[in-house]
Write a structure and sequence with these properties.
single chain; 11 helices; globular
């Protein structure tokens, strides 16, 4: 019997096991495989990119397919939930291949994802509070602060790392402006006026923002100079971000879905 570990490709070709044409075809097929398919078994960062992508895709399908089961006034909220996870799934598809090819954190793609999905998560607050009298000014204010938070965060992490503390401070202030609005400001008052399932959903989303979103500024401090860099005990930040993204985005959507179910059952 042949020991294929001890013979070269040229020998394999010469003895007729495989011809040159078929070898080229096999090489081209392997080269065309997604880089994720060539992932090492101990690549835990790549694994979380892959799982995150699949989880976001599954969540998107769930939200989109469930839309028609609710009243029209809740379909937009479910649609936005599906868009959030769908946008994230597309970006995670690119990020996992970027990681597989270069072995570097796909910072640019991650921030492009956040600049699209985080404002949409802010829109969700407006949509669930709209029936209680929420005005578009609330939505645009939260969107503005979310964009400031992300743009300044990107500058500090990828463009001007020498001033990471200054940019991080600005980003943090924008984050806490959102936290204040939903916990103590106009959004909080509207949720209390709505009461019932809306108030319950609002409180849960508030906890997602306060606790779930806190992963990102903490990760920023751990990954940029001038801060304490041992926050996560040496665990790769991409693993933290990937898990945080999946929990926050899918979790946000499930809270909205649960609210829509509760409101439908009230009739």
């Amino acid at each position: 019997m042949f020991n294929f570990n001890q013979i070269s490709l040229n020998t394999v070709i010469e003895i007729g096991i495989i011809n040159q044409k078929n070898l080229i075809i096999m090489q081209n097929l392997f080269a065309s495989l997604p880089l994720a398919a060539q992932m090492a078994t101990d690549d835990y960062v790549g694994f979380t990119f892959f799982v995150g992508c699949m989880a976001m895709m599954a969540a998107s399908a769930f939200f989109f397919l469930s839309m028609n089961g609710f009243d029209k006034k809740w379909r937009t909220s479910i649609l936005v939930s599906g868009l959030i996870t769908f946008i994230a799934a597309v970006h995670y598809w690119y990020m996992r291949d970027y990681w597989a090819e270069f072995g570097e954190s796909p910072t640019f793609f991650r921030y492009v994802d956040w600049i699209l999905t985080v404002p949409l998560m802010c829109v969700e607050f407006y949509l669930i509070l709209k029936a209680a009298g929420a005005k578009k000014s609330l939505m645009w204010r939260m969107i503005f602060f979310s964009v400031v938070m992300l743009v300044t965060g990107y500058i500090g992490e990828a463009v001007n790392r020498e001033m990471a503390q200054i940019w991080g401070l600005i980003s943090g202030l924008a984050y806490f402006a959102i936290v204040y609005d939903i916990w103590f400001g106009e959004a909080k008052k509207l949720a209390e006026a709505a009461g019932g399932a809306v108030l319950s959903a609002h409180k849960t989303l508030c906890w997602f923002v306060l606790v779930g979103w806190a992963i990102y500024p903490i990760g920023y401090m751990a990954g940029t100079p001038g801060w304490y860099d041992g926050i996560f005990g040496g665990l790769d930040l991409d693993i933290i971000y990937n898990i945080g993204d999946a929990v926050n985005k899918i979790g946000f959507g499930l809270v909205i879905y649960g609210l829509a179910v509760a409101k439908s059952e009230e009739k």
